[in-house]
Amino acid sequence: xxxxxxxxRVPPADGSWGALDLRLLxxxxxxxxxxxxxxxxxxxWVSRRGGLPERFPMNGKALCLMSRDMFASRVPRAGHxxxxxxxxxxxxxxxxxxxIEKMSTK
Length: 106
What we know:
Elements: H1 39-48, H2 60-64, H3 68-74, H4 79-104
């Protein structure tokens, strides 16, 4: 039977948590929530993943409205991966938002 493992993220014994440093959750220099991205951030994200920024002349909110096939039509070789990365980032932002809302109501 395994022994108890110490977890680095266990709350302190006194119950106090320090301020949450959101930079720990960031993958790069882009804002955590892709819904807040402007055209410049969308262009940077697309170009880092091998796409052409001029095929995405929009902000992050507009990306939310795009389907997987819409991504694929703009980036034929890597559109599905681009869509998957965007949806993963969006899910992470939504989960964080939900967590913060739950913690602020306590």
